[in-house]
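Supplementary Note 2. Why include the ligand at all?

Several targets in our set were suspected to adopt different conformations when bound, so apo predictions alone were not considered sufficient. For every target with a known small-molecule partner we therefore ran a joint prediction. The input for uridine-diphosphate-N-acetylglucosamine is given below.
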Amino acid sequence: MDKLVIEGGKPLSGTIVIQGAKNAALPILAASLLADGTTTLDHVPDLLDIDVMLNILRELGCRAEHTGGTVVLDTETAHISHVPESLMRQMRSSIFLMGPLLARFGETQVYQPGGCAIGERKIDLHLEGLQALGAEIEELGNRIICRADKLRGADIHLSFPSVGATENIMMAAALAEGRTTISNAAREPEIQDLQGFLNAMGAKIMGAGTDTITIDGVQSLTPCRYKVIPDRIVAGTVMVAAAATRGQVTLQNTQPAHLSSLIHVLRRAGVQIVVDGDIIKVGSATRPRAVERIVTSPYPAFPTDLQSQVMVLLALADGVSVLKETIFEGRLKHVDELSRMGADIRVDMNAAFIRGVPRLYGATVEATDLRAGAALVIAGLAAQGKTVVEQIHHIDRGYEKIETMLARLGARISRYSPVPNN
Ligand code: UD1
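The joint prediction is reproduced in token form.
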């Protein structure tokens, strides 16, 4: 297994261009199945999760190439509607394929993606939504068979604004007969990007970004060329890393409006932030201030995907901060690892009470999930001495060559791959 070795204590400095958004690209790739022919997607990041999605699409019969950030995907030859269990297990986001496969083939078979490191991650809202559109769903063990001769528009109220369920329903409803309304829909920017893509293919969808999305079904969709939005979580990770190392970093290709809640928190912590068009400048020369209370909630509130990274900054702050995780129950596992680096954090239920310390110290730590892994990298960059981050395949799921990106900003970070035994 690869690992990252970091010599900490060097402020980050310089300019970087932010990669395309993983969480926008994944549903958009799945949605490409709704049109027959060749779709071209620009600014698709080069990541493990994207590789898995492209492999699944190839298994289904598509032809896919990913070079220089552009994916060329020909769906004309797609003829299989069953997602193999082995591939389904590799990535929870494969659940996005249910809606498009059902709409395209009238049936699909997928597998329960199962729990994962950050919590249970149910799919009941996905299934209820597709049932409301007329699908018959049969669950045989962990196998899910979904059939619908015809999908029909419906009024669907989500009991929780699930990002994935909103996206799955949007994709299936795009080709359903009549109007679908999703209320209490998720409002994340990635949902607006999916609407943008589907509409570029000829769909009639309105309201993404608000809590009510209206989809007027159309007979067919046409392939198109589309550019994926910048990754707000990668941008946020770099912003926190700049602040935690007391550096000065300029981020290009961002959408600052997508990062409002983080910008607000960082400013409360005393970090200097200047926004100019799609550029964000982050600078910090002094010890951060504690932030009394941060609660993760659906967009536009503070994102769960930046909780672990911000915890590192607060672990170094002057004073006591409280960070409450409300989206995923298992998402405080990085606390044990940060404690090994000298952080003073107590967890009570889903809240972390963080008493800031003047410095963290290098240690050997393990990434337990994608964002926890990113947090440990930030901790290593800010810490005194050497940090080794293990299990970094989690980090590779969402960050394009993280060591190259950070080394460009002056970080002393290298990847070590085990030498194979003959
Ligand atoms: C997406 C993001 C992920 C992010 C999350 C929350 C992608 C590929 N991933 O995940 O990075 O952390 O949004 O912003 O876009 N839930 C149910 N039933 C369901 C679906 C969800 O109870 O059918 C619950 C989940 O268990 C969880 C919460 O709703 O507690 C949020 O999940 P959801 O918004 O669906 O997240 P994902 O789409 O899986």
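Residues 22-227 form a domain with the UDP-n-acetylglucosamine1-carboxyvinyl-transferase; Chain fold (CATH 3.65.10.10). The pocket of uridine-diphosphate-N-acetylglucosamine is lined by residues 23, 26, 93, 119-126, 160, 162-165, 186, 190, 303-305, 327-328 (CB under 6 Å). Comparable summaries for the other entries are listed in the accompanying table.
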